[in-house]
Design brief:
The chain has 374 residues and is an alpha+beta fold. 23% of the residues lie in helices and 34% in strands. The protein has nine helices and 17 strands.
């Protein structure tokens, strides 16, 4: 049976301290257009640019910010090379989930000593604002974790980026920080990557869900949530389980061409306002049957929000021992049914919406059926 939490808080054995998510980098086919999409719909602000005009010859990158979230959208300027190969294989997707640390050299050395594969040995990047020390390790698929030390840097973001401004500045939608990032891996590989995060980074298994928790009539999956000691980094890892038809994880793996980041969850302090704005700007969300709301308060108890807008928008609610949460999931944000987003508001709850799994997965299966992939 699945367990939601350990009876007592696990003893912290982080391999090295992680202050939080430094940035999420996407490798995309057209970063200029992707940046416009994230500005127009999600309300990110364009604050930085790197490209030929700044001395970087092989790529263009756009730095977007909202709250504590940094997204970097990068595209290659030629048809060959690792970045172009990555985009041909996977489409637009997350390449880098970067850690912010105090000592990148020490963190990298400890990770390698514990069995991590290197993505980048430590390098020092300089400009007039100081220096950044960066390294990188590999995780599932072609995804990496950059390790970023910025204690001696006072610039915008990274050397090579210059500040930019624009008269086009749609209002932010209210997302504040990255709550968690979810990875999909192949059947039988979940525990291997759980072991990686435990052994290499000292993370602990915060929550476990098996195919009894996450299943419908047709498909199921298994998931384990890995977290660092301070809880600022949370990585659920999913793998498919046997079912009558193709699961959402199998569909993702087929279209992405292997393991990768399935979705990024962004936290807000007012989910009704955030989701209303996103909907009005053209973001499509998975729909929840109206029957879900008929017994909602019986399942979760008293909540502060009015039921009417939750039902209208399709926002899900779940409760654990410490409070409740509200969450909703977008449809994939590109034509390949791979990357999507979660908008989440936590009102004390530290869990991930176990009570919503069936309703959520049935919504996903309806979309799969429309694509002919269920």
């Amino acid at each position: 049976m699945a367990s939601l939490t350990s009876p007592a808080s696990p003893e912290v054995h982080d391999t090295f301290p992680i202050n939080g998510t430094d940035y999420v980098e996407f490798w995309v086919g057209n970063a200029k257009q992707s940046a416009h999409y994230y500005r127009a719909t999600f309300g990110f602000k364009l604050v930085g640019y790197r490209g030929p005009e700044t001395g970087v010859r092989d790529r263009c990158s756009y730095l977007l910010e909202q709250g504590k979230i940094r997204f970097v959208l990068t595209t290659p300027l030629g048809p060959t090379g690792p970045m172009a190969d990555h985009i041909r294989a996977h489409g637009d997707g997350v390449r880098d989930l970067a850690f912010w640390v105090d000592d990148a050299r020490d963190a990298y050395a400890k990770a390698i000593e514990r069995g991590a594969a290197s993505a980048q040995e430590p390098v020092v990047l300089h400009d007039d604002h100081g220096e950044i020390v960066m390294a990188g390790i590999r995780t599932y698929g072609d995804t990496i974790h950059s390790i970023v030390e910025r204690r001696n840097y006072r610039g915008l973001f990274l050397p090579g980026f210059v500040p930019v401004s624009s008269p086009y500045n749609p209002a932010p939608v209210g997302v504040e920080y990255v709550d968690h990032c979810v990875g999909n891996v192949e059947l039988g590989k979940m525990n291997e990557w759980v072991g990686f995060y435990e052994r290499v980074l000292g993370f602990h298994n915060l929550l476990t869900f098996d195919d009894k928790d996450i299943s419908t009539e047709y498909s199921s999956l298994m998931s384990k949530v890995m977290s660092n000691g301070n809880g600022r980094i949370k990585f659920p890892i999913n793998e498919p389980a046997m079912g009558k038809k193709k699961s959402q994880i199998e569909e993702y793996l087929d279209y992405y061409g292997g393991p990768g980041v399935q979705h990024v969850a962004m936290a807000t302090n007012d989910i009704i306002e955030t989701v209303t704005t996103l909907r009005d700007r053209g973001i499509e969300f998975l729909r929840t049957p109206s029957s879900y709301y008929e017994t909602l308060l019986e399942r979760v108890g008293t909540i502060d929000e009015d039921m009417a807008p939750l039902k209208e928008l399709g926002i899900l609610v779940d409760r654990d021992d410490e409070g409740y949460l509200l969450q909703i999931f977008t449809k994939p944000v590109q034509d390949r049914p791979t990357l999507f987003y979660e908008i989440i508001q936590r009102k004390g709850a530290k869990s991930f919406g176990k009570g919503n799994f069936r309703a959520l997965f049935e919504s996903i299966e309806r979309e799969q059926a429309l694509r002919g992939n269920l």
